[in-house]
Amino acid sequence: MNLCFVSLSKSSTSLLMMIAAITVIAASNTNPVAAERPNILIAVSDDQSWQHTSFAGYPAISTPAFDRIAREGVYFRNGFAPSPGCSPCRAAFLTGRHTWQIEEAGTHASSFPSKYITFPDLLEQNGYCIGLTGKGWSPGNFKVDGRNRNPAGPTFSQRSNAPPYKGMSRNDYAANFADFLAQKPSDQPFCFWFGATEPHRGFEKGSGIKSGKKPADATVPGFLPDHPEIRSDLLDYCVEIEWFDTHLGRMIQLLEQADELENTLIIVTSDNGMAFPRAKANLYDHGFHVPLAIRWGKQVPAGRIVDDVVSLVDLTATIFDATEVTHNSKEFPVSGNSILNLLKSDRQGTVEPQRKAVYSARERHSSSRYMNWTYPQRAIRTQDYLLIRNFRPERWPAGDPRQLKPDGTLAPPHSGYTDIDPCPSLDVLIAGADDPQIAPFLQLAVAKRPAIELFHIPTDPDCLNNLAEHPEHQQARGQLAEELERHLRETGDPRVIDGGEIWETYPRYSRIRSFPPPGE
Fold first, then answer.
1. pLDDT tens-place string over residues 297-322
2. CATH of domain 13-357
3. Per-residue pLDDT tens digits for 14-38
4. What is the spatial distance between Cα 274 and Cα 50, in angstroms, rounded to a whole number?
5. Which CATH architecture fits 359-504?
6. pTM listed for this prediction
7. How does 26-37 read in b/e, with b if 16+ C-beta sit within 10 Å?
8. Are the C-beta atoms of 494 and 500 separated by less than 8 Å?
């Protein structure tokens, strides 16, 4: 019986961390069996786009822990989430399947059918001690399908601290990791999921400037206006990323103290892009292009930057390869392709030319439309191109523009758009809806979109220039659309098999809003 879930009584964080370090050091010195199998540490931030680390050169941020993993391992320029929303992305990562292959778990705030085994479950069955702190699979209801714990593993959450700004979690993630290490049986390798709730909204307004950051260092993406409130909002976002990075750094120190760092495969990434208009909950690059760095001691040659496109479902297959855990392909059909050979290569740039594309999808995000309707999208991303298929272009991509009040009357204009997290940046766009300098940016975020969108990423990283109708890009459009259709059919996506109306029926366990019928 696996006893790695026992909780400890409360004590001071510093004392606990010391005990944890001593305990694990002793285990590592006396137990060669555990050392033969790699540990797994997965660190997932909540809503962070790929360029927002100091390793990537963003001037307003300092992420020394992420930078260390990237410097001592492999940094991936092209890491992608299987969905631009947290709940479906995490479910895809945990199961190794595309979101359209996992039913309710493939949409936001629904359920997670117990028939879909997760990789922590399978590692546990193969002798691993597993644990979770912070955000595992969420939001949604995993109990309704018979699960008795989060699909990411048993939770360690007793330790708390006082974060520097409002909106940050009080969870002392690193101290809870120390709890986990302290009670882990000495003869077991581990798999631990660190899911921060940072930089998820909301942020303490003005925290970036309070921390000493300069508005001039905030690089404003092309889909947002260069406005003081938006620059400040970006700085607040950077502060939250740094808080995630601080806990990651403390966890790395714990592994060093325990002499476990070199035998631990560390994966650092995010579940989707930044929570700003036209980013999160969108299949533009800022919505699903995420940071990704992986370190594994001498197993992975250090100091490499790789351009191959990689999805988080590829990481699931990689974890099985690295741990030598086999799985029944009928019970656990992994959609991704392992990158273990890529990690162990000593090459830079494009290492595996056959790794040509990744795929991503979204259905429902928040409750944002009449009858809780979805906004179904699928995307194919190569190194150079992004093609998006919008299956219901008649719907509003950010949500219906106006909600209904509790008494059934219409709320004011621009009261909808609830697929965009409430934030100062959205406030700026709405306040400027009639300002010719601001209004175009609001429309970029909320206006209806064509059925097919195509972007050339090297020349248009902000995905502003839709090339789908340009004559010189018709060959690329045709090839990508054909490949996307082929892949969706081969993997059984209901949207291309029978129209996908099943997606409109899955229950939502978070807030349900009311909207007027289309045309009213």
1. 999 999 999 999 999 999 999 999 99
2. 3.40.720.10
3. 434 443 443 433 333 333 344 489 9
4. 9
5. 2-Layer Sandwich (3.30)
6. 0.93
7. ebbeeeeebbeb
8. yes
